[in-house]
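Quick one:
INPUT:
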């Protein structure tokens, strides 16, 4: 499945290089018009990251996200700065299909597991951003990649499987925003080890060949941000390469 994505800072469409707020590219685009274009081209799921909220949860762009949800017919998943159950409920109430939880899933697993139990595993997607060390260990980062989480990806998956984990977005931080291709070996391992989880690949996508390579890795979906914004290819072309299931 092709999952077009936009990142938002203060209402503007942006991209960061490897999660670094100091390396920001701003695009002169309307967030709603951009997402509506992706929807018109056939996207069945859209991914929105509130980077302002990720940095400061008190400044979450909830009103903008509400406008986006109201202006779209396509399902959206939203991440960035979610710290409380009230914030999860707020997003679900305004029409967000799935809430993406990142750092908190590492820092406070019991709290996040309680949300799986209350709202159902279809309502939550874990965002597992990994640094892969020289030993091949997949260490999950937290706080917008500014600090290491100290937990392995496998240990977190095992923990959340106890509450029915269905959706997980995995980014190899070293590839994000680089347009150097995805870490397909990572997704092959995950798809083989955990076939019951819907794996969303993210990071490094530059070409339709990259899209096809991720498809061949048996990941279930691919999040594409920068490559679409800089017109390397269109959503329609990506879907021709990887039809939506």
């Amino acid at each position: 499945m092709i999952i077009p994505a936009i990142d938002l800072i203060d209402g503007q469409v942006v991209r960061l290089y490897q999660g670094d707020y100091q390396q920001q590219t701003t695009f002169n685009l309307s967030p709603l018009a951009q997402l509506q274009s992706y929807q018109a081209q056939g996207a069945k799921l859209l991914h929105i990251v509130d980077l302002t909220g990720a940095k400061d949860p008190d400044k979450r762009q909830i009103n903008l996200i509400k406008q986006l949800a109201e202006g779209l017919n396509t399902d959206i998943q939203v991440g960035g700065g979610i710290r409380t159950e009230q914030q999860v409920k707020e997003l679900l109430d305004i029409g967000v299909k799935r809430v993406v939880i990142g750092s908190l899933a590492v820092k406070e697993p019991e709290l996040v597991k309680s949300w799986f139990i209350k709202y159902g595993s279809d309502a939550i997607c874990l965002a597992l951003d990994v640094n892969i060390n020289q030993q091949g260990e997949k260490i999950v980062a937290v706080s917008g990649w500014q600090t290491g989480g100290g937990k392995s990806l496998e240990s977190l998956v095992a923990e959340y499987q106890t509450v029915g984990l269905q959706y997980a977005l995995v980014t190899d931080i070293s590839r994000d925003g680089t347009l150097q291709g995805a870490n397909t070996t990572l997704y092959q391992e995950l798809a083989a080890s955990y076939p019951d989880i819907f794996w969303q690949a993210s990071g490094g996508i530059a070409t339709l060949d990259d899209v096809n390579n991720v498809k061949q890795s048996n990941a279930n979906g691919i999040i594409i941000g920068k490559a679409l914004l800089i017109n390397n290819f269109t959503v329609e072309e990506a879907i021709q390469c990887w039809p939506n299931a």
